[in-house]
Amino acid sequence: METLNTYLAGLFAGVPDTAATRKAKADLLDLMTDHYHEELALGKSEAEAVGAAITAVGPIDEVLAALDVDPVETQKSRQRTADDAIDEKSAERYWHANIRYALLLGAGVAFCILSIALAAAFGLQDSTIAAVMFFLALGFGVAAIITSAMGIKPERQRIAHRPLSPATKKLANEKLENYHQAYSVGLMVGILCCLFSVIPPIVMNAIANEDLGAPLMIGMIALGVFYLVYVQTISNGYKRLANRPVA
After folding, report:
1. Residues 141 and 108: beta-carbon distance below 8 Å
2. pLDDT tens digit sequence for 131-184
3. Which residues form the domain of 45?
4. Are residues 76 and 14 in the same domain?
5. Which of 39, 59, 147, 215 is the Cys-Cys partner for 117 at CB 3.0 to 4.6 Å?
6. What are the transmembrane regions (predicted)?
7. pLDDT given at position 223
8. Phi–psi pair at 86, nearest 5 degrees
9. Which of 176, 117, 166, 112 is nearest to 144 (CA)?
10. Phi, psi (5° rounding) for residue 246?
11. Is the pLDDT of residue 7 over 60?
């Protein structure tokens, strides 16, 4: 039975995947299975029964004609898909854009968090300066996030719904594998920064300078979040292409 499934999979390779196609494939499998068992009942060997069942299907052109699918158009469709595949140069361009996106996005989120630390630190001396520093940092963070989104959007649209060339698929898998160590280190640094952020308040309190404890704690959290966002975004960029099908 596995032989019949394999034969049908090859027979329908490149044929548009539609509801009608899937139904026809299932019907053909039922027909071939019945024919296979009929041949076995007549005393034929398994190999002979499989051969007879396959012969009963007929040429692929006749099958496509019964489905109202133009074989020539199907071939053209496959060719267009291959021509539209993402090559290595396009993939590298997207990855470079994704690294810039990761840097800006991480910095933007970090500055939004850091704005609270700056307000707390400068608020010890002058509330006006604290407000100015808060809105400056917050404005920079929001601007960085918006800029990052605007920068990556056209690059994502350029590769949207496109398969990969075989060489690009191999390159994407290599990139993802090679980045795993850097990703793990960045993830660990980010988590440790967040966990150890409780240390500055303890130290500052011990040296009688507790007012700086909270700003330093928030600053470490901002740094940790930057690392987490940065490495995760880059990793997602490699995964985005590594998970694409090959043309």
Report:
1. yes
2. 889 999 999 999 999 999 999 999 988 888 888 888 999 999 999 999 999 999
3. 2-82
4. yes
5. 215
6. 101-123, 129-152, 185-208, 214-231
7. 94
8. -75, 120
9. 112
10. -90, 140
11. yes
